[in-house]
Amino acid sequence: MSGVSSTIRPERGMATGALARLGQVAVLPVGVALRLLDPPMRWMQRMIGARRMAYVFLLPNFVFFGLFVFLPIGINVVFSVTGGTALFPSQRPYVGGDQFAYLFDCGSYLDPSSCREDHFWRGVANTAKFVVFQVTAMVLLSLVTALVLNMKIRGRGFFRAVYFFPVLLSPVVVALIWKWILQRDGLLNAAITTLGGQKILFFVDPGWAMFWAVFVSVWAHMGFYTLILLAGLQAIPADLYEAAEMDATPRWRVLLRITLPLLWPNMIVVIVLALIKGAQTFDEVFVLTGGGPGTATLMVVQYIYETAFSSQVQNFGLAAAASVVLGVVLFVLTLLQFAAARRKEV
Amino acid sequence: MRAATPVIASFTLSLLAATAFGGPAAAETTTLRMTWYSDGNEGEVMADLLKRFHEQNKDIEIVLDQVPFKAINETLPVQLASGQGPDMARVVDMGGLSRFALDMRPFLKDPGYWETNFGPFLEWMRPAGDTKSIPGFMTQLTVTGPFVNKTLFEQAGVAMPGEKSTWEDWAKAAKQVADKVQAPFPLALDRSGHRFYALAVSQGTQVFGANGEPDVVDGGFKRAAQLVYDWHKSGVMSKELWGSVSGTAYRGANDEFKNAQVVMYLSGSWQISQFAKTVGDAFDWVAVPNPCGLGGCSSMPGGAGLVAFKTTQHPKEVARVMDYLASEPVLAEFYSRSLFVPGHLGLAKKGLDYPTASPEAAAALKVFTASAAQISPIAYRIQGYSNSRIVLNAVISRLGQAVSGETTLEDAYKRITADVAQQIAERNKK
Amino acid sequence: MATMRLSSMLGQRRNGPGRPLHWTDIAAYVYLALGVVLMFGPVLWLVLSSFKTQSALLEFPPSLLPFAQVEVTVSGQPQKLPLFRAKLPDGTVRELAQVRRIGLIAQMVDPADPSQQFRVAIDKREPVRRVALATENYSEPLQRFAFLRFLYNSVFVTVIATLITLLINSMAAYGLAVYQFPGKQAATLAVIGTLMIPVTIILVPVYLVVTELGLTNSLWAVILPGAATPTGVFLLRQYMLTLPKDLIEAARMDKASEWQIYWRIVMPLTLPALAVLAIFSIMWRWNEFLWPLAVLTKTEVYTLQIALNAFQGELQTQWHYLLAMTVVTLIPVALVFVFLQRFITTGIGSTGMK
């Protein structure tokens, strides 16, 4: 292991010596194991050929995926066509498409209250609304922040870290902190009353509740997207800017003509990732608003979780059916991302 | 390479330590697991009692696994269904978990003692149709009832309504007081189906139809729902409890009450110990008898039971632990140190001393113990009904939507009926 | 003058000495200053609140610093008495200790001269308070349970899970980035498809799988299910795609085995991306709550997150403990942040998420 860093020095500029050492210490036990694995791997390579070693490399990861993602998805599909409250699939009576029929039993799909399972549809509508606002705000704010952080300003490293900090907090902690600030007697209402205003009950008003759900979620995740955009900004060749400066091009023009077009691929990554993660939102909003008032911030994933766990009749079948529907919708988003990613590779 | 050695060593050590977790405990002692959640200090008291039990019975060791309540409600049922549950657990949804409960009769020293002292509560723990089994005992009997901030009444110069006053009387008085002293919560009712039923029963709801099946939305129910709805409209109740969170989520006003923002707070006996501790000398608070309506003045009973499970490998040992914990002196100590209303008929009759309680707390416990004796049969029946949580959850979820302005009361009534029917049907699918 | 100097100082790096600030520079600094308040402020507020007593937590308006009422010993009184600033009928204001309160009237004494008794209306007095840290919010719960055991469990889960994740994710990423093979498209699609599935919606089936494997109540039940992360594979693959191909070809010429190329050449070059994944994995594992709650039921295998949340009862949440314990779980996060923030920003900056 000690030979690694001396014989092959990391060539990428960002990989400082300290980072390399740190990585080494963390991965050291694994490194020893890796060396021990060499003889069997050589043997394997002789048996199946170098090209098929790809399968060997993929195997462990896919065993885990298989056991803990694909198999469970399969079990979920089985759940979705069975009923009752039994836990083991073999003990559950087959009900065909009943769960789906129940879920889709609506007078009009545009009006959740006309549906038999109105909570599911309210969840769908809320999630859609949440995603639209959240992704818009997320993209705009992280773009502005990335642009600012890319300027030649003092303390740049510090400021970058500041915006990244909330990414490290768990969703529960994030929600708890903000709930504590936004409650009736919280910090924000104290500020409002000091300025002569009236206390606002943020979680009683559907509009405010949705606003804060979006706000808190943007607060928590913005740093991650900002860094992706920052990476894109740094990849833009400096001579383009120098040329613009020579021509005394106004800053806004530089932004519109050079920066934004060249940043577009990163923007797509940010939009698609934010879209997928947004649609999966659950714990932070759940802890913050509890899905209320009424059902104004009830998200699809919360609906699925509550149907499976919180109700006295743990309705795994209906929850699974809803999760299959969600999975299909998200899969469409996947293909979207895949298409976008492929276009970039060309 | 030299630098690597200590790292590898510690890595290997930690692996060894990890495998050691799975290793068997000392051969002769039986280890039992008890899953427990706490609202206050009862976890510490139970830990004390279990330690004492172990000193007297060296062959049995009980590990107390303290969990968040969320685990009791949401993951324990899944664990039990998969055969991975504990030997005993403190649970609230006793009816729902009754299919996993162990009938301890063959192992108990004196089943008669249990029958005599826990009789009415044992029904809550039994599966439908079973009238004999003994699965556990009540760690606490809870009784719903109102707490009043007496100091606010005095400051406003309004007289407190007396015994047998109606809900409307109290609401009016509380609103008067709140207006004078500018308290944001004249009347607060926990956002909980169970607490709503304290109001509904006193408004005369019958809950069950002639065929014994639930017929939730009847005249009494509608009267109660209308009251809650109107109180939110007129500002007697703040939307912050019922009109904020969604679904079945619980919201209490205990923090607001401690902060002297609530004039009258309908909650229950479990609040006593923390009020005594936190309110201190800030204001005078009293528990008052349940307000009345067309259906009488009953409150709702409830509580949590310590239940043994069928999946245990050691039913005999479990029964020995349960016999010990349920014995009169031990249970008396448990109730009195946790400031709980006794769920043991003998102790309830004798009356329990609460030496650690402050004068306010002792007075409140007395009021609640008295109203426990006046609970109507309907209230008992709802609590003991094995699908009770289906009803309570549907009610709170739908009324919450109506209060927040999302739906009308009429819609809520229809949805409640439909929700209850659908979930009971799902449960009966075999 | 002063503003001139400040602006020239701030503008220095960009425009050279003495050039005036462009308005966008000023806007940028305002934006960043706001950012510091908005990003750090809430966490700071949590930390301050966690040192307040149970009753101080409920106060409105909340005080910035944790205060507690001063208590004094008065001769002739068995217990310490709370100190108030009372406005007497004659208009004077004095610091008095309260003996007891009856209804709306408080009975008070002068601590210096206990023989002097006063009757004061309760709205005519204010508590005298001093900054005091309610450290019992921390010490009481920490003493009550086997904190070190839970800490050990959490650290064990975090470290082992992160190592496994780094290993198998980098292997898979290597396979996908370096080779051409039948089924590559499908494998890539499967990885990205996995990204779509939040754990919450497959919780019950995963629980069944873990039970069938006999893993419940073992730390491996927490470690293994999340070990293969789609995010990790995606991140590392994107990074490896940017590595020069001829490096690998050259190694093959030198008769290096595929496995050697992976761990001696590609892995070291991927360190920045591995560091990022390590940081994320540490955060995910350390903060995990819902899943451990489902599979761990025995105290000896609890992680910190479960143990600390035992303060959430059915009917009440003990806020003072909950806030304090939240701060405790934040400490490692803060440490990671302080020590690794440089690597976070440079690492993600160069993962080539493009």
From TrEMBL, chain B:
Q: Where is it localised?
A: Periplasm
Task: Quote the InterPro entries the UniProt record gives.
Answer: Bact_solute-bd_prot1 (IPR050490), SBP (IPR006059)
GO cellular component assignments: periplasmic space
* Signal peptide (UniProt feature, chain positions): 1-22
Q: Which domain of life is it from?
A: Bacteria
Q: A Pfam family for this UniProt protein? A: SBP_bac_1
- Name the UniProt key words of this record, in alphabetical order: Periplasm, Signal, Transport
PANTHER family recorded: ARABINOSE-BINDING PROTEIN-RELATED, OSMOPROTECTIVE COMPOUNDS-BINDING PROTEIN GGTB
**Family note:** Belongs to the bacterial solute-binding protein 1 family.
Q: What is this protein called?
A: Carbohydrate ABC transporter substrate-binding protein
Record the organism: Bradyrhizobium cytisi
